Amino acid sequence: MASDSNSNLRITIESNPPESRLAELNIKCWPKWGCSPGKYQLKFDAEEICYLLKGKVKAYPKGSSEFVEFGVGDLVTIPKGLNCTWDVSVAVDKHYKFESTSSSSSS
Fold first, then answer.
1. Residue 24 DSSP class
2. Span 33-50, pLDDT tens digits
3. Residue 2 pLDDT > 80, yes or no?
4. What is the rounded CA–CA span in Å between residue 38 and residue 47?
5. What does residue 46 show for φ and ψ, rounded to 5 degrees?
6. 81-100 residues labelled b (16+ CB within 10 A) or e (exposed)
7. What is the DSSP letter of 29?
8. Is 48 helix (H, G, I), strand (E, B) or coil?
9. What pTM value is reported for the model?
């Protein structure tokens, strides 16, 4: 709950969303992606929503020692523009979708 970071780019997590929510998003039709345990430097050029089928991740936003942890059954929204390191302790398998149309207006 420590979210006093200078950045307004925050990862949000819905833990174990109801099946109706997953169906509404049509998650089973989204592409899949996976990775083995390790550390990955990632930059998100678009907002990503993903649903973890397997895995455990600690995501460290660039320049911060704080992390957000998510895993199996979590619906995760990663904001556009976020640079972070994923420390994957259990291999990941996820459905994902990039939001390309939503936010072209500046905030």
1. H
2. 999 999 999 999 999 999
3. no
4. 23
5. -145, 155
6. ebebebbbeeebebbbbbee
7. G
8. strand
9. 0.84
E strand map for 62-106: 68-71, 74-78, 83-99
Cα 94 to Cα 34: distance, rounded to the nearest angstrom: 6
Q: Write the Ramachandran bin of 83: left for phi over 0, alpha for psi from -120 to 50, otherwise beta.
A: beta
**Which whole-number Å values give the CA distances from 74 to 12, 44, 83, 94, 104, in the listed order?**
10, 19, 20, 10, 27
> Residue 23's CB: how many other CB atoms inside 10 A?
10
Q: Give, as one character, the DSSP assignment of residue 28.
A: G
Going by C-beta distance under 8 Å and a sequence separation of 6 or more, which residues neighbour residue 13?
Answer: 68, 70, 74, 75, 76, 77
Reported as a single tens digit per residue, the pLDDT across 79-95 is: 999 999 999 999 999 99
Q: How deeply is 51 buried, as exposed, middle or buried, from its count of CB atoms within 10 A (0-12, 13-18, 19+)?
A: buried
* Residues 100/45, Cβ–Cβ less than 8 Å: no
